[in-house]
Design a protein that fits this description.
- It contains three helices and 22 strands.
- With 291 residues, it is mainly β.
- The protein folds into two domains: 140 residues, Jelly Rolls (Sandwich); 131 residues, Jelly Rolls, CATH 2.60.120.
- The strands form five sheets. It has a seven-stranded antiparallel beta sheet, with helices on one face. The chain has a seven-stranded antiparallel beta sheet with strand order 2-3-4-10-5-8-11, with helices on one face.
- A hairpin with a 4-residue loop joins β3 and β4.
- The longest helix is centred in the middle third of the chain and has 10 residues.
- The chain is globular and about 55 Å long.
């Protein structure tokens, strides 16, 4: 697996129409991530269910309506809302408007969703199997199993002058990913260069310019840009600018949220390198050396 760094608007375009855009940002076994634009009145797929993976959404701009669960519960997600639909929950979504909606769609694990999208684009007459099915007769799991975190909702963790808001934790759904909103103060130095053995680490910039190193190269990633460090890839992040940076940190599988929580719990004590190292290794955070 190779690292990915994308400028705003870059990605593998699946659909480009006046009222809808869909592009793939990441496609690996652990994760399929798309960024979409829906004009007012655009509807997503018919109500459906996944049995083997989680389907989730983060609203970047505008708003989306979601319907989920055997009760067909409806909720409106404004900009900054995160909705996690675990396996077995019937769901659909659409944009009632009046504004255009932009959103990220997370499939974790990917269930090969990215390749199915490409096949439908490139070979529309061929049928592609995917983990998506009509609603079961019993209606599936209840709406209460869906996690909805509205803008500014989620546990906040102080990281010195910076902070992290947990939008999806390993304890949510099946724990297939963690999603954290990071607010990085100007001059944030970030963690030492590191790698994960089994975890993929990715960043979608919401505001400002994030400095990242992924593999051998440094990058400055502006708002709307994206970076992915697959397992085994050395990486780090920082804010070298004079303005705050807001970024979504999406990790698959889940669990890195617990790393942040444990670090925060010992932040007020005198530094203990052995303890910090033990916490890091426990959560698949390993030191890396410049190539």
């Amino acid at each position: 697996m190779e690292a990915v760094v994308l400028e705003p608007g870059e990605g593998d375009v699946i659909t480009e129409k006046p009222k809808r855009t869909v592009m793939i940002k990441a496609g690996i076994e652990l994760l399929a991530l798309t960024e979409s634009r829906y004009a007012a009145g655009q509807r997503g797929p018919d109500p459906h269910v996944h049995w083997e993976h989680t389907d989730a959404f983060y609203v970047l701009a505008g708003s989306l309506f979601f319907e989920f669960g055997r009760e067909r519960t409806r909720t409106r997600g404004e900009m900054g809302t995160h909705v996690l639909v675990p396996p077995g929950v019937v769901h659909t979504f659409w944009n009632e408007g009046p504004e255009e909606a932009r959103f990220l769609n997370i499939h974790a694990p990917s269930a090969n969703f990215h390749e199915v999208l490409r096949a439908r684009r490139d070979r529309p007459n061929e049928e592609e199997h995917f983990d998506s099915f009509d609603p079961p007769e019993d209606g599936g799991r209840p709406a209460a199993d869906v996690v909805v975190r509205e803008p500014n909702e989620g546990e906040s963790i102080a990281l010195g002058p910076s902070s992290a808001t947990l939008k999806a934790e390993v304890t949510d759904g099946d724990g297939t990913y963690s999603l954290t909103e990071l607010w990085l103060a100007p001059g944030f130095l970030g963690p030492p260069l590191h790698r994960h053995e089994t975890l993929a680490d990715s960043f979608y910039v919401l505001e400002g310019t994030l400095s990242v190193r992924v593999g051998k190269r440094p990058y400055d990633v502006p708002a709307g840009g994206f970076a992915l460090a697959p397992p085994g890839t050395a990486h780090t992040l920082s804010n070298r600018s004079g303005a705050p940076v807001r970024v979504l940190n999406l990790t698959v599988p889940g669990g890195l949220d617990q790393y942040l929580r444990e670090l925060a719990a010992v932040a007020g004590a005198p530094p203990d390198p052995e303890l910090i190292t033990a916490i890091a290794l426990k959560h698949d955070v390993h030191p890396a050396h410049p190539a």
